[in-house]
Amino acid sequence: MNDLHLHGPHGAAGLLMVVGDRIPRALLALRSGAVTHPHTWSVPAGALEAGEDPVHGALREVAEELGDVPPLEVLGTVTDIVTPRWAFHTVIARTPACVPIRADGPDGWEIAGARWVTRESAERLPLHPRLRRTWPRLMDVATRRLHHAELQDLVEPQGLAGILTG
């Protein structure tokens, strides 16, 4: 368990931004040399504050680390229960396109860069240990949710109306 470093007494949350192109892509962030598990790829993430739900915590962390992000539609959350008292929540959110992302939020020093990746290209990167364990499951869930959301868009002409904005 030492390789997973449990940060924050209330658990942690991260945001997996995905785009449902023909081949789904996800945004990963390269952790800077100033944080635990430096120079590994992960989702933008951090400790939850007392009473904060995973969706709001993940959105807060993204704003703190990346600054402005494109509009998001939350598709669901995958929870990894690490201990009986600590969990990591990955919030999966769809965005309309693979737009360039810069780490220019107030905590941007935690991130050395960001990149849109396919499932297969991510598996060749040095992933954070927790993400390495959960990556296949996260992408399976993301792909299913993207497919369902795209079918809904065909039925509901408003498309991304009612989305959350970053």
- The CATH class turns out to be Alpha Beta
CATH architecture: Alpha-Beta Complex
Q: Secondary-structure element sequence? A: EEEEHEEEHH
Distance between the termini: 33 Å
CATH homologous superfamily descriptor: Nucleoside Triphosphate Pyrophosphohydrolase
H/I helix tally:
3
How does the major sheet shape up? 7 strands, mixed
The CATH topology comes to Nucleoside Triphosphate Pyrophosphohydrolase
Shape designation: globular
Mean pLDDT: 85
Which range best describes the helical content: under 10%, 10-25%, 25-40%, 40-55%, 55-70% or over 70%? 25-40%
How many beta-strand runs?
A: 7
Beta-strand content: 25-35%
Q: From the alpha carbons, calculate the radius of gyration and give it in angstroms.
A: 15 Å
Q: Brief overview, please?
A:
The protein has 166 residues and is α+β, with helices and mostly antiparallel strands.
Main attributes?
NUDIX_hydrolase-like_dom_sf, 3 helices, NUDIX_hydrolase_dom, Nucleoside Triphosphate Pyrophosphohydrolase, seven-stranded mixed β-sheet, 7 strands, alpha+beta, disordered C terminus, MutT3, globular, 166 residues, NUDIX_hydrolase_CS, 27% helix
Descriptive account of the structure:
Helix content is 27%, strand content 28%. It has 166 residues and is an alpha+beta fold. The chain has one domain (8-155): Nucleoside Triphosphate Pyrophosphohydrolase (Alpha-Beta Complex). Strand 1 (12-19) and strand 2 form a beta hairpin. The longest helix is centred in the C-terminal third of the chain and has 27 residues, at 129-155. It is globular, with a radius of gyration of 15 Å. Residues 156-166 have low confidence and may be disordered. GO terms for molecular function: hydrolase activity. Its cofactor is Mg(2+). This is MutT3. InterPro entries: NUDIX_hydrolase-like_dom_sf (IPR015797), NUDIX_hydrolase_CS (IPR020084), NUDIX_hydrolase_dom (IPR000086).
